[in-house]
Amino acid sequence: MSSETKQIRSALFQLSFPFMGKIVCGLPLFATFFCVLWSVLFDFEKATATHCRVNNYLPSISAAIGGFTPQRYVWRTCIAFHAAPRLMIAWAYYNFHTSVHAGKHNELYKAGAALTSLCHVVEVTALVGLTYISSLDNHGLHETLFIVFMASSLVYMLLTILLFYWGRSRNGSFLTLEESRSFSWKQRLFLTNISIFLFSVYVFFRHNWYCEPGVYTIFAACEYTVVVTNICFHYTAVLDFRYQKFLLTGSGDMGYLPYT
User: Fold this and answer.
1) CA–CA separation, 194 and 147 (whole Å)
2) pTM listed for this prediction
3) Run of H or E including 248
4) What is the mean pLDDT of residues 125-144?
5) Rounded-to-integer distance, Cα 17 and Cα 256, Å
6) Cis omega before residue 258 (within 30°)?
7) How far apart, in whole angstroms, are the C-alpha atoms of residue 52 and residue 49?
8) CA 14 to CA 247: how far, in whole Å?
9) Which distant-in-sequence residues (6+ apart) come within 8 Å of 195 by Cβ?
């Protein structure tokens, strides 16, 4: 009996990676839209209020998720349930990247894979911190966690793209059609994410400097786009692990194996 068969037979449960990816990405996506929509429908005046009292028509993410109920509880529940699988996926991606040999620079490649997974872990940790420490609880710490979240998120996406191409095009080889599809989506989502994020920074400062009506609405819309493109980038794991399944054995071991 092969070791893979033994693992499967001793598994307490097993889950296809595509299904797991849909759950992990679906939870924060649902929470985002629920919190924003609920805030607009039932807490519009308070959720869209600005420090300079100009017209604003959309709540920021922080206002939608941190200041009202039931939004706060929905957001915290969804983020809590999605966090642990995200850490497992960070580990899975390290194995994914290091499953290929990058030639004479393989040690550098492996170090890059480790750094990428570390950025993923930091991103998830900062997100959990943002979730449970709102700007109303501790504005300074909330702001710091947001900066850490965005920095680690952007570095993670960039390193993932670089490693994906480096590992899959080593020694003159070419990306398969499925790998090309995943790589293309990663590039587009990263470029959209960083472009909208940089634009949102400009809009945020413009709002604080000039207090123009509707400018904070643009900022909020940019925030939503950054969140959604971040989630979609992580969802490309479904393309990379589409033939894999995650399992947990009775001995506490975790792993992912090809479909049998």
Assistant:
1) 14
2) 0.91
3) strand 244-249
4) 91
5) 8
6) no
7) 8
8) 4
9) none
